[in-house]
Specification:
By secondary structure, the protein is an alpha/beta fold. Strands 1-2-3-4-5-6-7-8 form an eight-stranded parallel β-sheet. It has helices at residues 19-30, 40-48, 67-76, 95-104, 114-117, 127-132, 153-162, 179-185, 204-214, 230-238, 244-258, and strands at 7-11, 54-57, 82-87, 109-112, 138-141, 167-170, 192-194, 219-220. Helix 8 (179-185) links the parallel strand 6 (167-170) and strand 7. The chain is globular.
C-alpha cells in the first residue's frame, strides 16, 4: 500500500459490453499486449492496490455519434474518487451545447485525441472550436505517436500561441516518442504535461530534464490505465531521481490546484 496522496490524471474505463472490444482496438493501434481489463471494476481494483486518492476518467469519442453516449455513461459513475472529463469531437454539430452540458454535469474537462478522431491539431478550421471551449474546462490532449504527426508537439505549440487562455494538459510527456520535439517546441510554454505511457520508453535522464526544464509545478501524474496498471506505472515514476518535493507536486499538489480540489 502506498502512503503518498496521489491524483491520477489519466485513466480510461469502458462499459461492460464494449470493454473487450476497446482493449482490442488499443492493442491494434499501438501494437500492445494489454493484460488489464477495461471495465470500471478493473480500474477501481487496480487503483485501490496503490491507494489512489482521486482519478480522472476520460474517453475519446472516435466519431461524433459517440459523444453523448460516452458522456451519459461517465455521468452515471457514482464514486467520489472519480473526477470526470467529457468526450467531445470537433465535428460534433452541437458541440457548444455539449460544452454547457458537460459543465452542468460537474465534469472538469474534455479529452481530445487527434489520431483516433481523425483531425490535425492545428488545422485552422478548428479555430472556432477552440475559441468556443469554455475557459473553465481543462483540455487533456493525446500527444505524439510515431505513425502520425496529427498531434506533433509543434502543432500544439501553434494552438497555444493562438489560444493562450486554454487550460491544456499534454499527455505522454507532451508527445509520445517525440520527446526531442517536446523539448524544442513545448518545454516552457503555458501548459501542463502528464507522465502517462512514457516512462516505459523515455530515458530517466531525459524525463528528469524535461520535468526540470519545463517545471515540476507544470506536471501531473498519469497512469493511462488499462494500458498500464497503477502499480506498474507508479513504480516507474518513483524510480526517477526526483526530490520528494518534486514527487509531491507531480503526484498530488499540481493536479489538486488545477482541478480546484
Amino acid at each position: 500500500m502506498i502512503n503518498r496522496k496521489i491524483i491520477d490524471f489519466h485513466n480510461h474505463a469502458f462499459p461492460k459490453d464494449i470493454a473487450q472490444k476497446a482493449i482490442q482496438q488499443l492493442e491494434a493501434a499501438y501494437l500492445l499486449d494489454i493484460s488489464n481489463g477495461g471495465e470500471y471494476k478493473d480500474l477501481i481494483e487496480s487503483a485501490e492496490a496503490c491507494n489512489i486518492y482521486k482519478m480522472v476518467v476520460l474517453s475519446a469519442a472516435v466519431n461524433p455519434m459517440q459523444v453523448r453516449p460516452i458522456n451519459d455513461w461517465i455521468a452515471s459513475i457514482d464514486n467520489d474518487k472519480i473526477i470526470k472529463f467529457g468526450a467531445i469531437h470537433p465535428d460534433y454539430e452541437n458541440y457548444k451545447e455539449e460544452f454547457s452540458r458537460i459543465k452542468s454535469l460537474g465534469f472538469k474537462g474534455i479529452k481530445l485525441h487527434p489520431m483516433f478522431q481523425n483531425f490535425v491539431l492545428d488545422d485552422k478550421k478548428l479555430w472556432p472550436f477552440y475559441s468556443d471551449i469554455d475557459r473553465d474546462l481543462i483540455i487533456l490532449v493525446h500527444m505524439g505517436d510515431y505513425n502520425t504527426d496529427a498531434s506533433a508537439p509543434k502543432r500544439l505549440a501553434n494552438v497555444i500561441d493562438a489560444f493562450p487562455h486554454l487550460k491544456i494538459v499534454a499527455a505522454h510527456f507532451g508527445g509520445f516518442d517525440r520527446w526531442d520535439e517536446v523539448e524544442k517546441y513545448l518545454v516552457g510554454k503555458n501548459l501542463y504535461f502528464d507522465t502517462s505511457s512514457s516512462l516505459i520508453l523515455l530515458s530517466p535522464e531525459q524525463a528528469v530534464r524535461i520535468i526540470r526544464n519545463h517545471g515540476a509545478d507544470k506536471f501531473v501524474y498519469g497512469t493511462d490505465f488499462p494500458v498500464s496498471s497503477h502499480k506498474e506505472e507508479l513504480e516507474r515514476f518513483l524510480s526517477l531521481p526526483l526530490t520528494d518535493e518534486e514527487r509531491d507536486m507531480i503526484l498530488y499538489k499540481n493536479a489538486a490546484k488545477l482541478l480546484n480540489l
